[in-house]
Amino acid sequence: MTSSLILVMLVGGVVGAGFFLLFTVVERGTVSGAAALAQLDAQRMRGRRQASLTADRRHQDESVRLRKVGSELRDALANRGIKLPPTLTANLGITGQSVEAFLARTLMFGLLGIFLPFLVLGPAAAVGVINLVVPLWLTAVGALIGALIPYSQLQRQADSRRRDFRHVVSSFLDLVAMNLAGGRGVPEALQSATAISDGWAMVRIRDTIEAARLQGTTPWAALGQLGDEVDVDELRDLAAALALGAEDGAKVRDSLSARAGSMRRKELADAEGRAAARSQSMLIAQLLLCVGFLLFLTYPAVARVVGT
Questions:
Q1: Could you read off the pLDDT of 89-136 as tens digits, one per residue?
Q2: CB 248 within 8 A of CB 239
């Protein structure tokens, strides 16, 4: 009975998927000229994006095939007017991941969460040990958990890298202030300060300033755009301060020194807060060990009293 029910469900799923594909192919609808031109532009952009995936050097460690699948997903979401939240794009920007690869991983983990309960509990349901409804409910839960795994990993990685980025920005402010004190202008001070380190955060700032020089824009405007891209308020504040006082080196130097000191005090407070949280975790673990040891000591006496 169970095997026949599974077969009926599979056949029903295949037939339903066939009707859905037929509906999506046949149902075109009528569109206006402007909408048709917009669709044509979207197709051309999709082709350019597919071609640029093999030439993009920013994400060389990502699979091109995975990014192509994510590109299709991104275009499908864009065609339906669905935009990714700014926090997600900022987290992807700070970690150096592409939107296409993230969407493809989310889809992959979601599909894995759908099929994993069937693979684990399917044999037990086929022999009648458990009800078939249990794996079906687990597939929905598994798909949700699987789709949330890439996001949770991205969030943890983004928080860690953003904390490191803020630490580098505070050092960068001190270096710029020192260069300004040496008599250099603001653009020269910014470019010279980035040459002191080859860390990923300093390289990111250096590339941003160099791109601004080649494009003919001001470096503080480029730093402000970088702050929006990676969601770091300190970079936006730095861009605003440089834009207001770019002509007066003394005021800029004092402002940068003050901002660097404020950032260091904030980092120290955050470090003390994390240390206090870890101390509390260690205290809870020690209390649990003490409770377990007390139970181990009192169990023979309690068992003897209860037994008598």
A1: 888 888 888 888 888 889 889 888 888 877 777 677 677 666 666 667
A2: no
Structure tokens at 140: 């929905």
Distance (Å) of CA 137 to CA 1, 108, 114, 124, 271? 20, 19, 10, 15, 43
In SS3 terms, 146-209 reads as HHHHHHHHHHHHHHHHHHHHHHHHHHHHHHHHHHHHCCCCHHHHHHHHHHHCCCHHHHHHHHHH
Rama region for 232: left / alpha / beta (φ>0; ψ in -120 to 50; rest): beta
Q: Considering the chain, what percentage of its residues have pLDDT values greater than 90?
A: 3
Residue with tokens 């407070």: 269
Summarised one tens digit per residue, pLDDT across range 204-253 is 888 888 888 888 888 888 888 888 888 888 888 888 777 776 555 556 77
pTM (whole model) above 0.85: no
Residue written as tokens 């991983």? 105
